[in-house]
Amino acid sequence: MRETTTVPPFGIFKKKPNDIASAEHSIPTPASETLSIQQAQDLLHSLEAAKVKELSASLAPIKESAAESLKVIDTLAKEMDRENIKLEDVERRLKSVVEHSKTTVVSSLRREASLELPFPQSANDAKKFKERFENMMKRFGEVSGSHSKVLNAFMKKHSGKIKDEFEFLTKLLNETRAIISEFDRNREPIIRCENTLNTALQKISSINLAESSAKNIEKEIEDIERELKNVESELAAASGSNEFEQASIRVRDIAEAERKQEEFHAKIRDLFSHLSRAFTKYSYGITKETERRLETMSNEPWQILYEKNVTPYSSLLLEIRKSIDSGQIQLKDSDKVLQYIDTILESLPDLQYKAQTFKTEINSFRQLNIEIVYKVKDLEQKVMQHSEELARSRQDLEQQRRQAKDKTEEVDALLRRAGEILTGLIGQKYSLRYD
């Protein structure tokens, strides 16, 4: 059947090297040796388009030959369908099996022969062309293989012709694979160069962001420095004034008075601490008011000295003394406790006077104007905050500049690599730049 078709023998449609212009020489190339990234990308796209055109030109006759072969297969399938299979007496028992195989083969052949292979006008089309071609041949192989015995035994007239077409299509498929494989090899540097340029563009975008961030940080630093200078100037004026000097003396006086008051409170606490066990044993079965007074004398005994009337406390101490003296409260060192109670009762007027003196003195100091001291402290805090913020901003700025510098070096390396690939593809030396 092959000799009766118009399909050219395998390899006839394959053009010689001089018949198809090389893609590298079929596109216009820039005269300048320095290209922008966009120009390089345009050049790569033109180069790939030329290679795809070359690929289409190489695969077009294969598609045409395959289509002719499929027509032949469809014709053979139709003839096979019309043919009545003659069976000997011994073989009649196999009639149903043979008829089923015939129907299956005819149906599969016609179905696959009716499918049109896509015309490869792009790299993706070429991939689909090969995949569909491969799937078609796989199904041809499956149907012929599973029914080969029946075909060879009862349909010899057509099986040999179909086998010839299958072999012809297999050769076409092998040549398709070889052409596309060569295309992929030739295209690989283009893809690699495009990926390199895309990576460079991503890093350039990152550089632009870093530079924009650096400008914003520089503006922030200027604002912080200006504010810091104003605060420092205000601080110098306030801390160097006579008003601040006088207020500082008052603050020191207050601090000294409060220190003495704290020492006085500590002595009162120590004095009353010797009565803690007596307070604990006396605390059973008493009123809430008495319980409150006991807690005050146990925890903050100096507080009773600031009250206008200390009689309730002195009376309570006397009651506790009587309880100890009468034996109602049993203490191991009761004599010493009684001595401490007596000391406290005798000292209460004097202690109350000292407490009031401290309070009056501190209140008098606090009535003086010391606002400027708080203002200076607030300004000092602001200076510290601005200084810390300034240090962080300068560190951030340095980091952004360092990142931009590192990425710039990376971009330069990528562009050198892309330029080398482009030079290898075109045969003309190019260097790439970015604005």
Q: How would you describe this protein?
A:
- The chain has 435 residues and is mostly helical.
- It is built from eleven helices and two strands.
- Strands 1-2 form a two-stranded parallel sheet.
- The longest helix is centred in the middle third of the chain and has 84 residues.
- It is elongated.
- The N terminus is likely disordered.
- In spatial order, strands of the major sheet run 1-2
User: Major sheet, described briefly?
Assistant: 2 strands, parallel
Give the assembly state of these chains.
Answer: single chain
Given the C-alpha coordinates, what overall shape results? elongated
How many beta strands in the DSSP annotation?
Answer: 2
The rounded distance between the terminal residues' Cα atoms is 65 Å
How much of the sequence lies in strands comes to under 5%
Element-level helix/strand string:
EHHHHHHHHHHHE
Give the uncertain stretches in residue-range form.
Answer: 1-21
Average residue-wise pLDDT:
83
Brief rundown of the structure:
This protein is mainly alpha-helical and 435 residues long.
Please outline the helices and strands:
Blueprint: E1 34-36, H1 37-82, H2 95-114, H3 123-146, H4 148-154, H5 156-239, H6 242-273, H7 276-282, H8 288-299, H9 311-325, H10 334-366, H11 371-426, E2 431-433
Parallel strand pairs: 1-2
